[in-house]
Structures are given as C-alpha cells and as structure tokens.
C-alpha cells in the first residue's frame, strides 16, 4: 500500500510538472504571436508612411494609442472637447 502511494505521488508530481511546462509553453507562444503581430503592424505602418510621404512633424501631432483606444477623435482634440465613439 505504501509503495502504491509513493508511485501515485511521483506520478502526480510528474503530471504537475508537465502541466506547468505546458502553461509556460502556451504563454511563450502567445507572447511570440503578439510580438509578431506588433512587428507586422509597425512594418505596415512604416510602409504606408513611405507611400504617403508623411513628414515626421505629422506623426508628432497624431493621437497616442491609448487615446484612440478609448475613442477620442483627432478632429476635436484641439478644441478640448472629447467625444467617445
């Protein structure tokens, strides 16, 4: 009986380690995909800016990403009135 308990304990510890390793691999894969998406987005943005011949000054006046995420529009930022989409 004691031998079976020890075997089960080892088996459970191995399973716990395997589960932990799988969680780490999934998290790394998710972060890898997020970085890949972000780099592709930046590359597309650079390509578009090259095509549109935007000046560096125009980029400095664009809205920051957090403001766009909450729906602040570019047209009304100079009048200090903010609207949500």
Automatic annotation (TrEMBL):
It comes from the Eukaryota. InterPro entries: FAM167, FAM167_domain. Belongs to the FAM167 (SEC) family. PANTHER family: PROTEIN FAM167A (PTHR32289:SF3). This is Protein FAM167A. It comes from Galemys pyrenaicus. The lineage of its organism: Eukaryota, Metazoa, Chordata, Craniata, Vertebrata.
């Amino acid at each position: 009986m004691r031998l079976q308990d020890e075997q089960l304990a080892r088996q459970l510890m191995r399973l716990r380690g395997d589960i932990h390793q799988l969680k780490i691999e999934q998290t790394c894969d998710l972060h890898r995909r997020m970085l890949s998406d972000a780099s592709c987005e930046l590359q597309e943005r650079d390509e578009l800016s090259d095509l549109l011949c935007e000046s560096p000054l125009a980029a400095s006046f664009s809205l920051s990403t957090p403001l766009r995420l909450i729906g602040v529009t570019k047209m009304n930022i100079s009048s200090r009135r903010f609207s949500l989409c």
